[in-house]
Prior knowledge:
The chain is of the alpha+beta class. Helix content is 21%, strand content 37%. The chain is built from five helices and 14 strands. The strands form two sheets. The chain has an eight-stranded antiparallel beta sheet, with no helix packed on it. Strands 1, 2, 3, 4, 5 and 6 form a six-stranded antiparallel beta sheet that branches. A hairpin with a 7-residue loop joins strand 7 and strand 8 (216-225). Helix 1 packs antiparallel against helix 2 and helix 1 packs parallel to helix 4 (49-65). The longest helix is centred in the N-terminal third of the chain and has 17 residues, at 22-38. It is elongated. The termini are far apart.
Amino acid sequence: MTDPFEHHEQLVRLRQAGVLSQAEFEREKAHLLDGVTASAPALASRRSGRRFWGGLAALTLAAGLGAVSALGIVQDWGLQGLTSAAPSAPNPVANTPVRADISPESLRQSPPERQVQLAMHAVFGGREPIVQTRDGAVYHYRRGQLVWTPTGAVLVAPGAHAQALPATTGTLGVFYLKEEQGAFRVEGRWPQALDGAIMGDPPEWEISTAFGAAPVIVSTAGGVWQGVRCETTTLTELAASGPVNLIAFRAIYDNTGAARDGGEVASIKGAISNIVADKSFDVDFTGSRSFTQRYGRFGQRYQRLDADPTQTMPDC
Length: 316
């Protein structure tokens, strides 16, 4: 006779891994509980009722909350455990695929939330989404976005620094994935692909497909220093070999908080416009001064085409 306790653990594993839907999990659990009720005397001889029912209730609660089970099953990334006192140790099974309840051919057509779930598990395994870098920095990653490029899938995930200080910045992690039997496997890791803002915050970012065949991350980050706000926009292409920095330019300058009586106040903000795929784009600046900068693409870099010194942003 199959041990109901072990059977329930198996059901939890299958539900957490996505092999069973919630409805299927509840149906199988109901069948299991019906069988347990009928064979309670036999179970009592194998383990105490308190141990069995207490363990069964704990596992059921863990499954209902989407938490990690005692055996390290897939975590529900919607419930982020970012309050841990210490980072998790490196995960030796971070590249282990998670089986999907869909065929490999339809993985790209599955719901976006499902794609992100599989991608997050491929990158971080069954533990909290935490990475400790070689220099000792610890980043807590939030649920990211899965981007499909001409060569495959890429997970982009914002990471907050564990220490929210003026001297620390967050990051944007980029992880290249490969489809394999209805799951993802990590092929390339750039946990600190892009710098974030001060106080440990990740950058503001979005994905654009207007710059060419490969998607581009448009990220903006910076902060306020002694009353002066400075922010830089960076274009990063998700190329076949990995993320490529195309250009970075100052997008925001505002010294309102630092201007003294009689001092010059400047508040300027730039916005990208007139994008021509694989060729050029403009940045239109407005505010206390108005001007336009034009950038052209040369290989894997953009360069400024106009050299008028009056059409520049103030130094920070």
